[in-house]
Amino acid sequence: QKTFSPTNFLQHPPTISLHPLHRPALQDVAESRETAALREFPASPNQAEYHGTMADFPQYGAYHNNPVNVAIHITCVPILLFTGIVLACNCPPLLPTPDVLSFQYLPANAGTIGAFIYAIFYVLLEPVAGGLLAPLVIGSAACGNYLLGTYGWEVNYWAGGIHVVSWLAQFVGHGKFEGRAPALLDNLAQALLLAPLFVWMEILFFFGYRPELKARMDKNVETEIAKFRKEKKGKAAAQ
């Protein structure tokens, strides 16, 4: 009779031998469970195409293909996000905040809450890129609250003026250089939510972030642009 020892148990763990006739049934059960798991938890973004909002990046990118318009977009969108958050920080706190959740320059006003919504949204869409962008978005709210608390209403004049100029530059970029209306005219909510992340992804792509995703998105953007030009040509011919 063999004596028990932890070493022998770890080196030779007990095994259960099944009758060969039972194995196909167990394999069928395992395969059915695996299939159900795949339906419930689809493949990760690295293994499958993006679905939902990330799939809208190619369509959104088709609105920003001209180099000049892209440069305007990359410059103005972060400014629009920052100045928009600053202006929203004028709102008084909307929720009572417990001391444990209170942070300096992050009261629960519209600017802070909006920044957290954007940050969480981006992390859910693209965990790595969104995780890098989230501190910048939340930091914008902290900066906005600090500026308003330090300099008062004068900040609003600067933020409001810069905000308007940035919007005008966006429309000039689309009208003069891109040759098509901004994305916000087709889907306002999508454009306002996706624009900052789109710019951030463009910056990360420049530094080599996820080249396989960039290549796939570039290909889809070309398809969207060809589709737009075909529709535009068809409308012109109909007139």
TrEMBL record:
GO terms for cellular component: endoplasmic reticulum; membrane. The keyword Transmembrane applies. The keyword Transferase does not apply. GO terms for biological process: sphingoid catabolic process. It comes from the Eukaryota. Pfam families: Mpo1-like. Keywords: Membrane, Transmembrane, Transmembrane helix. The chain crosses the membrane at residues 70-91, 103-125, 131-148, 188-209. PANTHER family: 2-HYDROXY-PALMITIC ACID DIOXYGENASE MPO1, DUF962 DOMAIN PROTEIN (AFU_ORTHOLOGUE AFUA_8G05310). This is DUF962 domain protein. It comes from Penicillium canariense.
